[in-house]
Amino acid sequence: MTGKIQMTVPLVELDGDEMTRVLWQMVKTELLEPFLELKTEYYDLGLPRREQTGDAITSEAAHAIRRHGVGVKCATITPNAQRMEEYGLSRMWRSPNGTIRAILDGTVFRQPILTKVIRPYIPHWTKPITIARHSYGDIYRDTEYRVSGPGKAELLFTGQNGETFRETIHNFEGPGILQGCFNKDDSIEHFAAACFEYALATRQDLWFSAKDTIMKQYDGRFKEVFQDLYDSTYRAAFAQAGITYFYTLIDDAVARILRSQGGMVWALKNYDGDVMSDLVSTAFGSLAMMTSVLVSADGCYEFEAAHGTITQHYYRHRKGEKTSSNPVATIFAWSGALRQRGKLDGNAPLIRFADALEQATLETIESGTMTADLAHLSTRPAHSVDSETFLRAIRTALTDKLQ
Ligand code: NAP
Ligand code: MG
User: Fold this and answer.
1) Which of 92-106, 243-257, 267-281 has the highest average model confidence (pLDDT)?
2) What pTM, to 2 d.p., does this model score?
């Protein structure tokens, strides 16, 4: 190889916690720095630094992504009571992903990473199924109430223009439960636009499913926004790309997805996307073989792994044990971010590097060298290695490719 690949604009790098923080450094040392003049604007989102900065670091990082257009994020701890004690926190800081999503206002696309040797639990799923999850509102911003006894529950809206709406939800004869949800037209419009853009960019059909037969106003509005945007803006471009958009009820979509070969973008409301992305990734083999990218309404990208910080492995790592933690989703977060940077900057060598890195990773697995989570799913003889050995094997394959 003659000299390292250069970068012109920095990537926004968001470091994280525990085992994924360890993998993060290993990936940089073994697979990036030997080949690239890596340029990043670094933000440490590890929990100690979030505590030190009163979590200001998280918003700063999100704003940096807005400025530079592309970020890559390591998995981070979302604190709970146990973490408060473990890390001596002054406050139970909010989920960094939640904070970043609120600032970037986006849609999360999750796609399984397929190899020739890991057979999905659904054998005819030969192409990836990408889940596009709306990441705003609905039950994640709900208002709940536990009704203690008889009484009347009403839905009341008071408009600033004097418009009012009032309807009985239920006349309770005894104790029960109540929930109020909302979403916003502009957020749904951004979600729909992000899905159409993503389907076009990846040349895959777009499906959107919800339950508008039951939620005629609520899910009906989602359906309408998608259809209006398709008709006004995307129909011709889709036809030209040879792809289609259609809406179907979520129960019908589930049945069709199961019978399909994959290869589509499946847009889902917030809760549906939460549940279905776990189902789809697990059916394809492993949580550690799923990429995740947040695309903002104004075209900024944040790449990450879909899994968490692999806490149990980290505790073993701290005791000096070698762990077989799977770094593939972390590698693909970097390759995705570098490729996007390359596209924005017209940097062809950087794009080629990102492609080579992904190919080297897949070929290493296909040659039989893989981490423990994959080894037991392999259709060919496999030997299970620790993370470091796995990364060195990828480095060898990558060096060959770049010669
Ligand atoms: P997790 O870190 O995804 O790990 C759950 C289990 O899945 C692990 O114990 C491991 O199973 C397996 N696993 C996940 N990723 C793996 C990998 N790369 N290689 C091998 N095995 C892998 O989820 P969690 O334990 O529920 O959460 C841990 C922390 O992560 C929490 O503090 C949570 O807040 C945080 N989290 C962060 C994000 C994010 O930043 N995007 C997402 C989810 C969770 P075995 O132990 O059986 O090997
Ligand atoms: Mg989930």
Assistant:
1) 243-257
2) 0.89
**What pLDDT is recorded for position 393?**
98
Residue 348's H or E segment, with its range, is helix 348-366
**CB-count exposure of residue 202 (10 Å: 0-12, 13-18, 19+):** middle
Tell me the CATH number for domain 120-141+184-284.
Answer: 3.90.190
Residue by residue, DSSP assigns 249-317 as EHHHHHHHHHHS---EEEEE-HHHHHHHHHHHHHHHS-GGGEEEEEEETTS-EEEEESS---HHHHHHH
**Rounded distance from Cα 307 to ligand 1 centre (Å):** 5
120-141+184-284 matches 9-116+291-403 in CATH topology: no
Under the banding of pLDDT at 50, 70 and 90, the label for residue 21 is very high
What residues are neighbours of ligand 2 (ion), with CB under 5 Å?
274, 278
Report the nearest-CA residue for atom 30 of ligand 1. Answer: 308
What Cα–Cα distance (Å) separates residue 354 from each residue in 11, 16, 37, 73, 350? Answer: 14, 22, 14, 16, 6
pLDDT at 233 over 90: yes
| Cβ of 331 less than 6 Å from ligand 1 | no
CATH, range 9-116+291-403: 3.40.718.10
Does the beta carbon of 312 lie inside 6 Å of ligand 1?
yes
Which pLDDT tens digit goes with each residue over 293-314? 998 877 899 999 989 999 999 9
Rounded to 10 deg, the angle between the 96-104 and 56-68 helix axes is 40
